[in-house]
Amino acid sequence: MEKIRKYFDIEMETKDREELEALQLHRLKLQLKKCYRASEFYGGKFKEAGVKPDDVRSLDDIIHFPFVTKLELRDEQLAFPPFGRHTVAPPETWAELHPSSGTTGTPVNNLWSFNDVRNISRWTARTMWTFGVRPGDIIQNGFSYGLWVAGMSTHYAARELGCFVIPIGAAMTERQIDYLINPGSTVLLCTPSYALHISERLKQRGISPEDIPLRIGCFGGEGGTEVPATREKIEKGLGIEAFDYYGLAEIGPTIASECPRKAGIHWIEDHLLIEVIHPETKKPCGPGEIGVLVITHLTKEATPMVRYWTNDLATFDKRKCKCGRTHARSLGGILGRADDMIIYKGAKFYPVQVEKVVRSFRELSDEFCVELTTDPKFSTDVCTVVVECLKEEEIPKVAPQLKQGLKEECQVTPEIKFVSFGSLERTTFKAKRIVDKREREGNRH
Ligand SMILES: [Zn+2]
User: Fold this and answer.
1) In angstroms, what is the span from residue 372 Cα to ligand 1's centroid?
2) Which of 149, 242, 261, 445 could form a Cys-Cys staple with 253, CB 3.0–4.6 A?
3) In this structure, are residues 111 and 149 in contact, taking their beta carbons and an 8 Å threshold?
4) What is the pLDDT of residues 317-341, one digit of tens each?
């Protein structure tokens, strides 16, 4: 019976939309009041914006509250070290510290209280159940353990689900493959880049996906799984069904994930209020319109965020999914980073679009990068897509097709550079897709 149960928490996952929003509003009011009273950071911000928690009558009233940015949190923690004044719960309730990955600048410290750990473990178990993970599965956790949010949360969720875990982390590719054979993991958790790398090594070792019992892949930490060509490569290469989930250090891990219908990622709306905001006008986007995800914690205790500006791009869809779940979705998952937008010859595009095109070519490897340089003669920007062709003799055939594909997808034609197979860096963590070598101050990639 347990194995065929479709939902982990049927009552919450299929709650009538009106009831779900009433629950959100109730939790939002409580959360805003707590932040206003217990945090000088929020108290000051709300007063400056002329808003009070008591003014909130509907969920739409959230738009009157000010955004919180990562830069602001960094400054707050520098001025009031080590955690800033947005810690709402008292220190004796703190359980864990999970700073942002800190690829640029000082990492922002985020705290989880004991209740936060309980909620995170529970909702992560819910997402993994939705993917089809069941008690008795052998989970190979290839997410990085330690400070990063994904490793610990999925580990706790595996316990919640009653699964056997191999806590290998994001390392030792050969041993990852050994464990896929014996004891024969049935579920793999890692970034999609790392999944592709494992499948490449599996092939090189002459092991067919049919020879291993692996059946489910839970992939997060970066986009890619929802790019059809990438999903197909991962699923075929490992003989599995691949699912996408999304999280970020400031808000939490696995906060949105796919269902068996693979019709976008469902948000954990009982714990979060999601908005999609136009990056320039800062007004809410309409249905289907791409904007920046702005997220408010409804239940987080230790370092709650109110209107956190994620910089991640997505759409928002409240329509009930065919899977029966009523929690809203972002179709196509996370579509890129607002600051990863490439502007070239007047066209605007994102690395995820390049990925879509590159990975539709069987003749190319899964790796690619977008190189931005300066033309020494004219001091203009040059944008080059660097790819690996599996067989050198196919370059003349692939080159014009790739150029055409990129032109159609990105509305501009970048330069193309072919390098030999294996020259681009393989990663066990998040792949770096933009290499900015332009001669100017303040370039950030
Ligand atoms: Zn669904």
Assistant:
1) 38
2) 149
3) no
4) 999 999 999 999 999 899 888 878 8
For tokens 């990105």, name the residue.
Answer: 410
Counting every residue, how long is the chain?
Answer: 445
Task: Calculate how far, in angstroms, residue 325's C-alpha sits from the geometric centre of ligand 1.
Answer: 6
* Residues 6+ away with beta carbon under 8 Å from 79: none
70-78 long-range contacts, CB within 8 A, separation 24+: 70/100, 70/108, 70/250, 70/309, 70/311, 73/108, 73/250, 74/105, 74/106, 74/108, 76/41, 77/106, 77/108, 77/109, 78/106
Please state, in angstroms and rounded to a whole number, the distance separating the CA atoms of residues 103 and 354: 22
328 C-alpha to ligand 1 centroid (Å): 9
Contacts of 441 (CB under 8 A, 6+ apart): none
Phi and psi at 132, nearest 5°, equal 110, 5
**DSSP code at position 421:** T
Nearby residues of 338 by Cβ (< 8 Å), 6 or more positions away: 279, 292, 311, 312, 313
Rounded to whole angstroms, the Cα distance separating 396 from 391 reads 11
Q: Do residues 365 and 387 touch, judged by C-beta distance below 8 A?
A: yes
pLDDT (tens digit per residue) in 8-63: 999 999 999 999 999 999 999 999 999 999 999 999 999 999 999 999 999 999 99
Query: Considering only CA atoms, which of 410, 334, 340, 411 is closest in space to residue 372?
Result: 340
Using CA atoms, how far residue 68 sits from 74, 410, 438, in Å, is 11, 31, 30
Please state, in angstroms and as integers, the Cα–Cα distance from residue 399 to each residue in 209, 350, 356, 391, 439, following that order. Answer: 31, 21, 16, 13, 28
CA 95 to ligand 1 center in whole angstroms: 32
User: What are the strands, taking DSSP E only, across 390-440?
Assistant: 415-419, 434-436
CA distances in angstroms from 335 to 143, 204, 209, 341, listed in the order given? 22, 32, 29, 11
Q: What's the 66 CA to ligand 1 centre distance in angstroms?
A: 31
Give the strand pairing for 187-190 and 342-344: unpaired
Q: Is the pTM of this model over 0.70?
A: yes
